[in-house]
Amino acid sequence: MSDPSTSWRGRAAAILTVLTVINFLNYIDQMLLSSVLEQIKLEFTLSDTAGGLLGSLFVITYTIAAPLGYLGDRFKRKNIIAGGVMLWSLATLAAAFARTYEELLVCRALLGIGEAAYATTAPSIIADLYGPDERSRKLALFYVATPVGSALGFILGGLIGEHFGWRAVFLVGGLPGLLFAALAARIVEPERGRLDPVTARTEGTFFAALGRIVRTPAWGINTVGLAMMTFTVGGLSLWMPTYLERVHGMSTASAGPVFGAVTVLAGLCGTLLGGSLGDRLQARSAGGYFWLSGVGLVLSAPLIVLLTRMDHLVALFVVAFFAELLLFLNTGPLNAALVGCVPAWLRGTAFAVNIFCIHAFGDALSRTLIGYVSDRAKTAYLAGQEPTEAAVRAAEAAGLNLAIATTAIPVLLGGLVLLWGARRIARAPGGLMTYAGGPQPHR
């Protein structure tokens, strides 16, 4: 009989490729809205608050639907993945034909449900394709879609939207997912936990697992830091193309692609650099992952404020590059810390609850709040002035500029929490594996 691990090598690479391409489509479809938000606002005569809600509603439904990951432990995961990809692709296509703002909101809500079904299930298949010594590298390949896929969404949305309008953006964006939904349904699903030791599959009730997780200091510190970072990154991802158009006069064809290109470079450099430095620092101290992530967030905060003060576009993009690089430093370290702070049999639940919290208290709020702050600031700037067209445009630009600058506050707070957490974890007897009941035994 052949070695199971050997017989799976070829098909594992094919399955990983399919899942990774789908993850790129996942982030592309998320970000298409950002590049054409200004066009949508003009067609439906929306306020910035209403425009922000289009982004927030996706995150809200994504967060609420995150427990769909529980179904992946009970039913065939490939079917859940295929169904999720099909749903979000059809929702993207339907957005191209939305006749009202309310219909567009429904499409964004369905997008969130479909992507939640995929994002909470696919990583567990990858974990069953590769052993513990390879999982980190393979999952890193899977998650490189976060910065690169997001940037492709900006670029494609900007180019297509400028020449063919915002409806064409969603039409083109939704079609590839239908093909990959069919491919996902045909993959050969590996046996759950086939490469894990028996002790890694220990089961308990959901509430017992939840209690164990919330009593783990490293998990709580990680979740607070990630939520603050997600608040800012999620908000900026929606509003930056609009900011570049409104404040700096860039065209739709330029704003999305240029910001996307900066995000690709910063995301790749930050993610790879953070992964390498994080492993080295963690080898020296149990708080290394948190220390690097905290420093990155703290240093990025003044750069976010600085970019709103830049009048020259080249200088603005240079500042934006370094701000994003510092933000993406934490991608590898914080995910590695999340894996390392709980026993293997709790990792799925730990990730699910973490995802729920960071979005519920992060970008589910920020996208609409940025629009709200922009609207309020616009009203304040116009107070006592003649509301001429020029005055309104100037007030809209100033309001959004202020709203973008305020996103530096959450990342600063998140960075300080992580730095405090790094000192606490470094002094704890069990390091990352410490929880309220005492140090957790290594399995």
Automatic annotation (TrEMBL):
Q: Where is the Major facilitator superfamily (MFS) profile domain?
A: 15-426
Keywords (alphabetical) are: Membrane, Transmembrane, Transmembrane helix, Transport
Extract the GO molecular function terms from the UniProt entry. Answer: transmembrane transporter activity
Keyword Nuclease present in the record's keywords: the answer is no
GO CC, one annotated term = membrane
Q: Which PROSITE patterns match?
A: MFS (PS50850)
Endpoints of the signal sequence? none
Membrane topology of the entry: Multi-pass membrane protein
Q: Under what name is this protein listed?
A: MFS transporter
Give the originating organism. Nannocystis pusilla
